[in-house]
Amino acid sequence: MNTISKTPKKTMSNKPISPEMEDAIFRRDRFTCRECGAEAPSVFLRADYVIDPDRGGTDEDNMATFCAECYNQRNGKMIVTPLEMMQVRRAQLNQLMVWKQDNNRLGRDQVKIVKDYIYNRMFQNYSMSNAGEFQIEKYIRDYGLVSVLDKVDEAFFSKIKFKGDKITEESAVEFMKAIGAFLRVEKGGELNKQIYYTGGICKNNFGEYCKKECLRRLFDYVRALEPYYSEEELILDIKGTVQQRTKFMSGLPDWRAFMDNHQREMLRAKGKLA
């Protein structure tokens, strides 16, 4: 059912905004007032021009969503009346629900794109659980569809192993885990990338069960030094001293001692330890 009123809305100028355009502006702004951040359905919304079109502002980029209070303040008078608010808020609630349903359908469509892409990559029948689909949808929401597809490729080439013509079950599990790990590293920038790379060295040297502890220690190390070292200095330190020493260690206790001593040395270099 179409819930959009057909009556053009009054604006700060004599140029009205069509109901269809107003709905498009609401969707773009996520049904949120650009001025104060209030959201539907708790407030009545109106689209308005940011710059009076009579002064040259005319296109969609010059329009924004405002709640009734901000809308009235901008225009200096009660353009939106209490009676009008009561009449229109139910229609705006329906618009909001249609928008949410459209977004959910888009999310499901994007999950299917990723699933089909993974199936094509795996060269064989591969079933994804509901939990797996949920995780993929969450990745898409957090990082975007293109980034997820890129990391599917990266995870495939770094984790998948074959036994004969078949992909091993163990490497398929590692492949799915790696998609999220690679996305998190990319979002965190070069420093995060080097921390996780060092965690991988720890995993190879000390065993899978040690990786989480090593990552926690590395993040604690960075937090302790961040007030005194730039991000570039920390990246160089981890890529250099920390990774090189870690590569030649075979025991977790020795690595723990090295990290403690190295952290003290780094703090002492800045005059933070006696």
Describe the structure.
This protein has 274 residues and is mainly alpha-helical. Among the domains are: 19-101, no CATH class; 188-274. The chain has nine helices and four strands; from the N terminus they run H-E-E-H-H-H-H-E-E-H-H-H-H. Strand 3 (162-163) and strand 4 form a beta hairpin. The radius of gyration is 27 Å and the shape is flat.
Q: Report Rg.
A: 27 Å
Widest β-sheet, arrangement of strands? 1-2
Overall pLDDT metric: 82
Q: Largest sheet, described in full?
A: 2 strands, antiparallel
Strand content: 5-15%
Termini separation (Å)? Answer: 74 Å
Total number of strands: 4
Taken in chain order, the helices and strands follow as HEEHHHHEEHHHH
Q: Structural class per helix/strand content? A: mainly alpha
Shape: flat
Stretches where pLDDT is under 50 for at least 5 consecutive residues are: 1-8
Q: Considering DSSP H and I runs of 4 or more, what fraction of the residues is helical?
A: 55-70%
Number of helices: 9
